[in-house]
Amino acid sequence: MKKAWWFAIVVIVIIIIILLFVRVRLTGYFGTSIDSCSDSDFGKDYMKKGIVHGEFNDIQKGFQTDYFLEEDYCKNDRVLVEYYCIKEGLHSYQDFEEFTCPKGCSSGKCLGNYDEMPKKGSFWDYFRNLFN
Predict the structure, then answer these.
(1) What's the domain count of the chain?
(2) For the residues 3-14, what does the mean pLDDT come to?
(3) 8-state DSSP, 119
(4) pLDDT, tens only, 55-69
(5) What is the pTM of this model?
(6) Is residue 112 part of a domain?
(7) How many CB atoms lie within 10 A of CB 76?
(8) Strand partners, 105
(9) pLDDT at 119
């Protein structure tokens, strides 16, 4: 009877150690677990070209660590593809949006000045987006 308890305890300790070292996080985003994401322009800044990069554990490749790097770019002379990071709990992952620049798009950013950009949301929406 004592052997069964010791065996159960050893198995539980091994499982805990494996989970701590592997740090498996399942998010459901296309079978991947994103561990980190950084944005050089700190979110949705249409007037500055940014780079989003990070790493994730790819479940389909046996939890192999993979890396991503995406740059903001102009889809055409008016539409900007803006990459940014989204944080959910301990996870963060990349996403993007297509934004129509009022004065045109060039070199991965909208042309013009910040005060010419359409105002979206409240001050708190803007402040919150600085950290996303």
Answers:
(1) 1
(2) 81
(3) P
(4) 877 666 666 777 889
(5) 0.61
(6) yes
(7) 9
(8) 110
(9) 59
